[in-house]
Amino acid sequence: MNDPLSAACTSSPTSSSTTSSEVSPAASSGLPPSATPGAAARVRPSPEDFAALRGPHGTYALLDQFGVIDAVGDDAASFLHTQLTNDVQSLESGSARLAGFCSPKGRLLASLLLWRASDRVRLLLPADLQAQVQKRLSMFVLRAKAKLSDATDGLAVVGFAGHVRDALSQCFDALPDGVHVKIDGPSGALIRVPDADGVARCLWVGPKAEVHEKLAALDDKYGIRRVPPAVWDWLDIRAGEPRITAATHEAFVPQMINFEVVGGVSFHKGCYPGQEVVARSQYRGTIKRRAKLAHIDGPGADAIVPGAELYHSDDPGQPCGMIVNVAFAPAGGVDCLAELKLAALESGSVHAGAADGPKLSFLPLPYALSTEA
Questions:
Q1: pLDDT for the residue numbered 371
Q2: Most exposed of 57, 101, 122, 306 (fewest Cβ within 10 Å)?
Q3: Which residues of the chain have pLDDT under 50?
Q4: How far apart are CA 81 and CA 106, in angstroms?
Q5: Which secondary structure element, helix H or strand E, spans residue 325, and what is its range?
Q6: Tell me, what CATH number does 196's domain have?
Q7: Is 77 part of any domain?
């Protein structure tokens, strides 16, 4: 068997050859940046936390920024299939899949990772949207034999990164050998997620008491470093994987944040809320807005939060985009995924929060986009 957790994954999402029409600029909705839950309480991880990602023992983080919804019943998969942007009915027991939940206008209400767990379909999503998404999905169950419940309290969500193969081998009989491959064990599910900055990663989701007990044993035997969940946020950004939170709820059509490129949208599965808008955006015209990876440094950088608007130096009077996700970077400042007009990259400079705010320095994404500036 290959060593999937000690070497970088060689597979990457394939880009679509089709283009889409320009969609309207991302509008602020949900909570303003200043009201983003937890924004004021963010704490920068230490240099040792980041260094441990490439150390001999790897890292783990308890990811309390996520919640879990369980969908149970004979019609659970078919119901979710009609509501989400990806194919749920064809989801096999040994895999996981990204999906979005859209408004009728095609705007993302949430981004999800989903998989089959015994007799249920399990949905992982940002904790600040869990209750809202569960309530909205439940409104459409109607006569379907499906019930949605909050499974967050009974489960632990743990992110592993780096050289953790030997440790995880003590808890699972096999390890996932490809992106979004899932291995089930007595202690829950282990899901391979995309590498980030050359670091291999897995998610472990299982019964809280049992997972915590096994983590304590792994700590003692293997010396894995526990790091703050903010390290995982940074890794997600470096993987180019967008995450919809309360601050960006209903702000983006999936293509605006590259969601179809990372595998979050099926264009062959049939109808779901907003499907016509998403399909039209894909097949007509040219995509003129995308998410880009960027670094922000200097005064004010650490205060930038999701939902902060972006401004171009040539047109400071109106926003040209929005911060999707942001996290502290190892060498100072922050890294972010920034949604913006591709024309804004042609000349001048882009600033976060205000026309005279900190400047964005753009970095290569780990995947190719179907439309570039």
A1: 54
A2: 57
A3: 1-4, 6-40, 372-373
A4: 16
A5: strand 315-328
A6: 3.30.1360.120
A7: yes
